[in-house]
Structures are given as C-alpha cells and as structure tokens.
Design a protein that fits this description.
Elements (H helix, E strand, L loop, with lengths): L1 E15 L3 E8 L3 E7 L18 E8 L5 E10 L2 H4 L2 H17 L7 H15 L4 H15 L5 E5 L11 E5 L4 E3 L10 E4 H12 L12 H19 L4 H15 L1
Parallel strand pairs: 3-5, 6-8
Antiparallel strand pairs: 1-2, 1-4, 2-3, 4-5, 7-8, 7-9
The structure holds zinc ion.
C-alpha cells in the first residue's frame, strides 16, 4: 500500500455512486490507470478543478488493496481553457483522449504517448488547425502503440510507391499496392497527394504540428483514411469520430 504522485492527463470521467467519479488517466510514468475520486461531485470538493477530462493534472494517488487507485489530491497544471471554448478544437481533443484510451491497456506505460497527447492538446489550445492537429497526433499515437502501417513499398511487386496516379491501401494489413498491382486486389484508394501529406505528418517535429494543413479532397481522404484504418486495426469506431464527421459535414454546408 502506497501513495504516489503522477503527472497525468485525464482521459475521461464518469459519475459513480452518489457523489464519486470514476476517472481514467494517462500518466507520464505509469500509463493508463483507473481511479476513484471520492466525493468529487460535492460542490466544495477540492479535487474537482483538476479532474475534468482533458486536464493536465498532478494527481496524488493511493494504492490500497483493491486494484482501483484512489485520488487523494489533484493539482491542475493546465486546463487548456482556450481549447474548451472552441467546439471543433474540444471535439478533436476528446477524440485524442478516446484514441489513447482505446489503444492502451491499464499499466502499459508510454511516456512518448503522454508527450504526444500533451503536444496535441497544447496545439489545439493555441488555436492551430484542429483537424490537422487531431489527425496528426492520432497517427503518431497509433504508431507508438504498434499500429504503424508500411506504405513505402508495394507489398506485391516490391517496387517503391511511385509518382503516378493512386495508391491502394490494405487497411487491415497496413500495406500498400502500387497503381499496377491494385487492379487485382480490392483496397482503399487514395491519391498520391494524400499519401504525401500523411508522410509529412508522420515525420513532423512536435513543435510544428498543425502547420501543414490539408484542404478539399486531400482533407476528406485523410479523414476517411484515419477513420477506416482505426476501424480496421482496433475493430471499433470511436464515438467521438462520429461527432467529428457530423461537425465537418455542417462546416462543409456553410
Ligand atoms: Zn506493385
């Protein structure tokens, strides 16, 4: 039985019993963990301010006999208030929390995932292009969790993906087909421009996230690519993505 401190991002929170909440955090040292925050929904709770979803908080945790941790203290480090005031930025932030929650099991540590999540929330808070930030960070988190695709070479003829036409992506395998080979197999087709932007995102320095924005058809293809790849790889579509899709349809209609 021990008490320890952890710098963490709150991924989600749900009401539990009369005044408690069950929260899921992603900690810098220990990765994903579930914890109970007792009495947090009482008006005068000192824990409340630090435990809203998407907050960066230093939490004081107590590990008792049960597998569930207990939050005994929470000091808010960064609430990302500007992000919360913009529906699109907030929605992409919630999507990133959803992705990290889906990709990681409890107690699997990944300091880099924690750092990328911080990069994403910080960029959204600075007002950088929300969809570009969200998609870039989601891909980097997929890569860190071991879901990186190999889209440099054609899996059939072993030639590099060239400079003409389209590329066929095998989403479940994470492999690519060149324009010649994709005639014989069904695949998800994207333009080379889309793949080029995706590659830039995958190699981008964290400080520049959100600076290479996609528009029009490339943007739509990249959104669909992430959506289809996530479903093919993890077997479910995050609900936050459904919301982002309807949000994007609304914006297109404006
Ligand atoms: Zn080929």
């Amino acid at each position: 039985m021990a008490q320890f401190q952890e710098a963490a991002i709150v991924l989600k929170s749900r009401p539990y019993r009369e005044a408690d909440s069950l929260i899921t955090i992603f900690g810098k040292q220990h990765g994903k963990a579930g914890a109970i925050a007792k009495g947090v929904r009482k008006p005068k709770s000192k824990l409340q301010a630090g435990l809203y979803p998407l907050s960066y908080t230093v939490v004081e945790l107590y590990q008792g006999r049960s597998s569930l941790l207990t939050v005994v203290g929470a000091e808010l480090g960064q609430g990302f208030g500007r992000m919360r005031n913009n529906l699109e930025s907030l929605s992409w932030g919630l999507f990133l929390a959803d992705v990290v929650d889906t990709l990681w099991s409890e107690h699997d540590a990944s300091t880099e995932t924690f750092q990328w999540l911080m990069v994403g929330l910080d960029a959204l808070n600075q007002g950088r292009a929300p969809a570009t930030v969200g998609m870039t960070v989601a891909w980097r988190c997929l890569e860190l969790a071991g879901y990186a695709p190999e889209w440099t070479w054609c899996v059939q003829c072993r030639q590099p993906i060239d400079n003409k036409g389209q590329v066929g992506l095998l989403l479940s395998q994470g492999e690519a087909l060149c324009a010649d080979c994709m005639r014989d197999r069904s695949s998800f087709k994207v333009s080379l421009g889309t793949l080029k932007t995706w590659r830039q995102w995958m190699h981008m320095d964290p400080s520049r996230v959100g600076s290479v924005e996609a528009h029009g058809r490339v943007h739509r293809e990249l959104f669909e690519l992430l959506d289809r790849y996530l479903v093919a790889q993890v077997g479910r579509r995050p609900r936050s993505l459904e919301f982002l899709e309807s949000l994007s349809a609304l914006q297109d209609g404006e």
